[in-house]
Structure to design on (573 residues):
């Protein structure tokens, strides 16, 4: 018996470099915001500098997203806003199709953009003058949590968008949303670990970020195996083979995360803490490999079906 | 046949591939009326077909399916090319329309599927969704193009150019119910003549709720590059599964983050 529809006579949409770039940065903007929120919510007071780094990184990587999406529209780039507003004569109004991930994603990106901008601005204000959070108390936490939910959506919906099609491979699996999310979280942890080089007061969180990266990478590995199992069952795994170097690069990224996380992934007794060390060359190399792996994974998924 | 075309009624094509002679008059008429330049000429070295595919410049494409065995056959057992004038199926449950985020793809007053050029913004979601490889992007306009079922001609009371040009009436245009009846009669005639492989594709609702442009085929759908009923699925089939996969990962990811970042007292 075939799992999902497996016979395809469909044309490739030519979603290539701009979309690859968007998927990469969407994973990072969502992942960084989610990690920053978690660091602030469940972390130590000394995790706050890393949380702010996360909000900055989320905002900066977010800025690239609409540029890439608009550039991808080619000659129709000036109609980017048609995603939000239906201009059909006699049927004008807002566009929202909950069953079309592209439609939902555009709205989510818009809403998430507000959260990312406000959180980055708040971090900037806090870095400029010490004191209570402008968005303090429960309201501030709720704000971050809601933003975090949108962040997780942004980091994952791109995979669901690919599946909600009739393309071979993409539509033969339900793993892509989770896979992109796990890899986005891993890449974000690696990026924040790298950025602690430039913010010494965030060094406290370095070990925790490596530890988190390790868990995300295990999740990613499990989902990658599940992804291949589902497309093998559907009989459409063949076109993934020529892209073996990209899959291997993705695996190198996962492996690097696990190697560097090894020293941190253990239950430490209460009251203890890992030695606080600045991010060194090993973090630089590992983060670069992890981010390359995040990019390679998306490239492998995108190009194996086109 | 003379057809009176009225808004509010369902129209479509019945393409009877058993009488297609591969003359490509439909392709020419379509290009002529719709002012399509065509792709730059190329030699595909694949039977008599150098059009190759449906795309932004080819809204009708006569497929030549090489069903001829390599060895010569005995007398009376010869086989021929299968020919089929392919086109947008104007699906009742249209995959393209389902995913289009701008609302550019609409169902017209003639129950056909139409891409509004001034609304489309070239996102290409419809291309990833159409299971028949019908739509393609025109790089010059930055919009998606496909057969309009001659929307402008229908509005003027004229039948589509391809159906009008077809010399064998392989392509018939008319009210859907009448076409379905004609197809049933033709199928029964072929079966009574012993042509048991003849079958209708998209006549009933098993394929995307029914196709307004449906076919009589002389082999199974896959031979013509058409998904069979088991594989004719809408993109939205993966919505729930895809989101559940993402949600489970999100929950596990948050738990992983809590484990890694949780407060561990002061040190
Ligand atoms: S054949 Fe393709 S383009 Fe035509 S209506 Fe169906 S899904 Fe849309
Ligand atoms: S390319 Fe145009 S018609 Fe196709 S999904 Fe995008 S907006 Fe809709």
């Amino acid at each position: 018996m075939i799992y999902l529809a497996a016979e395809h006579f469909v044309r490739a949409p030519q979603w290539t470099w701009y979309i690859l770039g968007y998927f990469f940065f969407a994973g990072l903007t969502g992942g960084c915001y989610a990690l920053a929120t978690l660091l602030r919510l469940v972390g130590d007071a000394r995790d706050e500098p890393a949380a702010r780094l996360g909000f900055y990184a989320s905002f900066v990587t977010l800025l690239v997203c609409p540029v890439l999406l608009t550039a991808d529209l080619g000659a129709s780039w000036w109609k980017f806003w048609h995603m939000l507003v239906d201009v059909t004569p006699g049927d004008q109004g807002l566009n929202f199709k909950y069953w079309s991930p592209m439609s939902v994603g555009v709205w989510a990106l818009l809403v998430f953009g507000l959260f990312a901008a406000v959180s980055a601005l708040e971090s900037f204000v806090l870095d400029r003058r010490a004191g209570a959070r402008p968005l303090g108390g429960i309201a501030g936490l709720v704000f971050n949590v809601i933003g975090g939910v949108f962040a997780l959506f942004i980091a994952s919906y791109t995979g669901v968008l690919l599946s909600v099609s009739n393309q071979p491979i993409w539509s033969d699996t339900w793993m892509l949303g989770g896979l992109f999310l796990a890899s986005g979280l891993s890449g974000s942890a690696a990026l924040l670990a790298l950025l602690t080089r430039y913010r010494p007061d965030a060094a406290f969180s370095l070990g925790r970020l490596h530890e988190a990266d390790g868990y995300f990478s295990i999740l990613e590995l499990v989902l990658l195996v599940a992804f291949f199992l589902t497309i093998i069952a559907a009989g459409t795994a063949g076109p993934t083979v020529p892209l073996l170097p990209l899959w291997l690069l993705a695996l190198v990224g996962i492996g690097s995360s696990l190697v560097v996380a090894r020293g941190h992934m253990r239950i430490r007794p209460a009251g203890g803490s890992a030695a606080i060390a600045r991010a060194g060359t090993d973090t630089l190399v590992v983060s670069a490999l992890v981010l390359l792996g995040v990019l390679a994974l998306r490239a492998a998924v995108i190009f194996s079906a086109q | 046949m003379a057809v009176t075309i009225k808004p509010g009624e369902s129209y479509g094509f019945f393409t009877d591939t058993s009488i297609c002679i591969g003359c490509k008059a439909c392709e020419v008429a379509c290009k002529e009326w719709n002012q399509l330049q065509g792709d730059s000429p190329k030699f595909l070295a694949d039977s008599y077909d150098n059009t190759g595919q449906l795309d932004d410049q080819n809204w009708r494409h006569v497929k030549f399916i090489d069903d001829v065995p390599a060895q010569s056959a005995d007398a009376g057992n010869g086989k021929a090319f299968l020919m089929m004038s392919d086109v947008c199926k104007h699906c009742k449950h249209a995959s393209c329309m389902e995913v289009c985020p701008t609302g550019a793809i609409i169902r017209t007053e003639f129950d056909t599927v139409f891409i509004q050029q001034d609304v489309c913004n070239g996102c290409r979601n419809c291309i990833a969704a159409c299971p028949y490889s019908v739509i393609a992007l025109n790089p010059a306009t930055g919009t998606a193009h496909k057969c309009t079922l001659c929307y402008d001609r229908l509005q003027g009371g004229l039948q589509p150019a391809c159906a009008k040009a077809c010399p064998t009436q392989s392509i018939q245009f008319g009210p859907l119910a009448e076409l379905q009846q004609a197809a049933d009669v033709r199928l029964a005639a072929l079966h009574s003549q012993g042509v048991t492989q003849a079958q209708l594709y998209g006549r009933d609702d098993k394929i995307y709720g029914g196709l307004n442009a449906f076919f009589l085929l002389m082999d199974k759908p896959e031979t013509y590059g058409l998904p069979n009923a088991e594989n004719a699925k809408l993109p939205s089939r993966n919505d729930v599964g895809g989101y559940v996969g993402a949600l489970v990962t999100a929950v596990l990811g948050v738990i992983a983050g809590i484990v890694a970042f949780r407060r561990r007292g002061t040190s």
Q: What stands out?
A: The mean pLDDT of chain B is 93. Helices of chain B lie at 25-34, 95-99, 125-129, 151-155, 161-165, 176-192, 239-261. Chain B has one domain: 11-235.
